């Protein structure tokens, strides 16, 4: 909630109203909301539970306008690192990738194709506030998203468990030093061939143990941090 209030104060989104139970631990948030001109409504625990999607609600529910950000606008500052999600269905994974991208210093996260809504309740919670830290944009036209990344000077690299090249070899060769858009596919099927054909390359995360694979969020963390380290080292 604190991150949403900060974003509201900065003009990044509009919080229309805040519903809260009468608990001392909410006092700081309520004071900030009132100071920012957000209407605050005190409600019962039962009412708060009916407004919340979680099994154990925290007693704070905000109503916010959904930010409308186009990929070109999200890439206007020409970030050096971007995450692109294509056809990702699980909101928990999507939200976690937003959190990981934020932690790795990425400048934007783009949702392309039939990917879950970035503002799905579970995705918002999984992002733990990172959704409000960096531009998040959506476009159902995957090719348009990839073209916007190219226009912003980004090299398109797909994460693919069956790729010939791997992350370690690419890192040693300096292939991760430049501006990069990492493209991640769905949990079940990965990246479609028609998407891979539009990328500069695909790389797999090397597995040194006996696990068959990594889940999407874990693979995204490894890939994004590999690029972040390479870029910091080169810079």
UniProtKB/TrEMBL annotation:
Keywords, ordered alphabetically: Methyltransferase, Transferase
Q: Which InterPro entries match?
A: Alpha/beta_knot_MTases, Ribosomal_eL30-like_sf, rRNA_Methyltransferase, SpoU_MeTrfase, SpoU_subst-bd, tRNA_m1G_MTases_N
- Per the UniProt entry, what is one GO biological process? methylation
Molecular function terms, GO-annotated: methyltransferase activity
Annotated Gene3D superfamilies: 3.30.1330.30, 3.40.1280.10
Keyword hit for S-adenosyl-L-methionine:
no
Q: Does the keyword Transport apply?
A: no
Q: Which residues form the RNA 2-O ribose methyltransferase substrate binding domain?
A: 3-70
Q: Which family does it belong to?
A: Belongs to the class IV-like SAM-binding methyltransferase superfamily. RNA methyltransferase TrmH family.
PANTHER family, sorted: RRNA METHYLTRANSFERASE 3, RRNA METHYLTRANSFERASE 3, MITOCHONDRIAL
What is the protein's given name?
Answer: TrmH family RNA methyltransferase
State the organism's lineage. Bacteria, Bacillati, Actinomycetota, Actinomycetes, Pseudonocardiales
């Amino acid at each position: 909630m604190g991150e949403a209030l900060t974003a509201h104060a900065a003009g990044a989104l509009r919080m229309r109203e805040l519903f809260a139970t009468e608990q001392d631990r909410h006092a700081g948030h309520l004071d900030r909301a009132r100071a920012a001109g957000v209407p605050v409504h005190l409600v019962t625990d039962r009412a708060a539970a009916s407004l919340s999607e979680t099994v154990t609600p925290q007693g704070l529910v905000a109503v916010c306008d959904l930010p409308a950000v186009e990929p070109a606008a999200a890439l206007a500052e020409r970030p050096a690192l971007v995450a692109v999600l294509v056809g990702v269905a699980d909101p928990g994974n999507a939200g976690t990738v937003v959190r990981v991208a934020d932690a790795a210093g990425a400048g934007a996260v783009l949702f392309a194709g039939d990917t879950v809504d970035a503002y799905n309740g579970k995705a918002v919670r999984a992002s733990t506030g990172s959704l409000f830290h960096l531009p998040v944009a959506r476009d159902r036209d995957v090719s348009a998203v990839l073209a916007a990344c190219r226009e912003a000077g980004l090299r398109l690299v797909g994460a693919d468990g069956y790729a010939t090249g791997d992350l370690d070899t690419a890192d040693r060769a300096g292939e991760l030093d430049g501006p990069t858009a990492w493209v991640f596919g769905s949990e079940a099927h990965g990246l479609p061939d028609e998407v891979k054909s539009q990328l500069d390359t695909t790389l797999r995360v090397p597995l040194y143990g006996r696990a068959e694979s990594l889940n999407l969020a874990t693979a995204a963390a490894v890939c994004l941090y590999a690029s972040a380290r390479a870029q910091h080292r080169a810079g």
